[in-house]
Design brief:
This protein is mainly alpha-helical. It has 3 domains: 52 residues, Ribbon (Seminal Fluid Protein  PDC-109 (Domain B)); 154 residues, Chitosanase, subunit A, domain 1 (Up-down Bundle), CATH 1.20.141; 84 residues, 2-Layer Sandwich (Chitosanase, Chain A, domain 2). The chain is built from 14 helices and 8 strands. It has a 3-stranded antiparallel β-sheet with strand order 1-2-3, with no helix packed on it. A hairpin with an 8-residue loop joins strand 4 and strand 5. Helix 6 packs across helix 7. The termini are close together. The N terminus is likely disordered.
């Protein structure tokens, strides 16, 4: 499916390399925190924990103390670190650590650091937010596949691009974020004086600003093929998140914190509304909905009212094709009622609430 509607730094610095430790001192001194994280990311996941009540056939694998052990022969009740029944293997990542690493792997390291510092949310929480956002936009939870997304969805907003649907602008979008995206791409690519023209040139596409609208002169095929080719470009991904933050995330976090709210579910709900209906402006934007959602300081009470207000208009004004909009809001409201407000250890819950059919 397609991105539904419209709208209205972070630093591009590359993480410093880890200091190498002398081989003779490595065991005694350990590693830096960053080194430990990288080492852990290379470790296999831990098998099921060893249990004294479980019989193990030869070749069975169990973990204990962060190490995977393989049974040399049938055994039961013999601790892996004792006796000859077990052969020690490599150190392994506990399941919770492996799970967190899986979420974090969807983000560039500098993006994770920036999001944590500026939103208070970690990789697992942002990964779940992006899954909830991408379902009604692309009918998929695999949001990382859409950095190179490009399409003219005939909504008079120009081309729709990337993981949050940046647009080049048109009669229905006279304040597009596409120009900012290309300028950020130029900056992330190392330009000392970044410009929209510079970003277009780096992408290998042609266009120019006509007022606030970015008019693309290439054919749709040529333009979208070039954007698709940026799918795995690190500078493009960095620019994508930089623009996403400036246009939608920053405002959404501010609005949540002004009301005393900081949960991942609330911030994610505001971000989803902002990119789908606009951050600020008319009554249908995030700003307009917040003004009609009451003044309760209780987060659940306020968000319940917010979801009710959004449900009234989410399938209007070309925001979404009915009934996709109401299902979009229902994802968030259901998680609220289930108490999944921190979006931690919520993989199964997110999978369940996104299991609906796009129209």
């Amino acid at each position: 499916m397609k991105y539904a509607a419209k709208r209205l730094s972070f630093p591009s610095a590359i993480l410093a390399g880890l200091a190498l430790l002398a081989a003779g001192c490595a065991a005694a001194q350990g590693s830096t925190a960053g080194g430990a994280e990288k080492q852990a990311s290379r470790q296999p996941d831990c098998a099921a924990a060893w249990s004294p009540a479980t019989p193990y056939m030869a070749g069975s694998v169990a973990s204990r103390g962060g190490v995977n052990y393989t049974a040399a022969f049938w055994t039961q009740g013999n601790a892996p670190e004792q006796g000859q029944a077990w052969q020690a293997g490599k150190r392994c990542r506990p399941a919770a650590q492996a799970k967190a690493a899986d979420h974090d792997a969807n983000f560039p390291p500098n993006t994770l650091k920036f999001l944590k510092a500026n939103t208070g949310l970690d990789g697992e929480q942002w990964d779940n937010i992006m899954k909830l956002v991408n379902k009604p936009e692309q009918d998929s939870l695999e949001w990382t596949k859409f950095y190179g997304y490009c399409e003219d969805i005939k909504d008079k907003r120009g081309y729709t691009i990337g993981i949050f649907g940046a647009t080049t602008g048109g009669s229905n979008d006279e304040g597009p974020d596409g120009p900012t995206l290309f300028k950020e791409f130029d900056a992330s690519s190392g330009a000392s004086n970044p410009s929209i023209a510079g970003g277009l040139a780096r992408a290998g596409v042609h266009g120019s600003m006509q007022g606030k609208i970015l008019k693309i002169s290439d054919s749709a095929k040529v333009f979208c093929d070039k954007i698709g080719g940026l799918q795995n470009n690190p500078a493009w991904r960095d620019a994508m998140w930089n623009t996403f933050y400036k246009v939608y995330i920053q405002y959404s976090v501010q609005q949540a914190r002004q009301r005393g709210f900081s949960s991942a579910l609330t911030i994610g709900s505001f971000v989803d509304t902002a990119l789908n209906q606009g951050a600020a402006g008319d009554s249908g934007t995030l700003q307009g909905l917040l003004s009609r959602s009451g003044n309760s300081s209780d987060e659940k009470t306020f968000m319940t009212a917010f979801y009710a207000q959004r449900s009234k208009i989410v399938d209007t004004n070309h925001y979404n094709q009915p009934p996709n909009g109401k299902n979009r809001v229902k994802q968030w409201s259901t998680l609220l009622n289930q108490g999944e407000t921190d979006l931690k250890n919520a993989d199964a819950a997110v999978q369940k609430v996104t299991d609906w059919e796009m129209k």
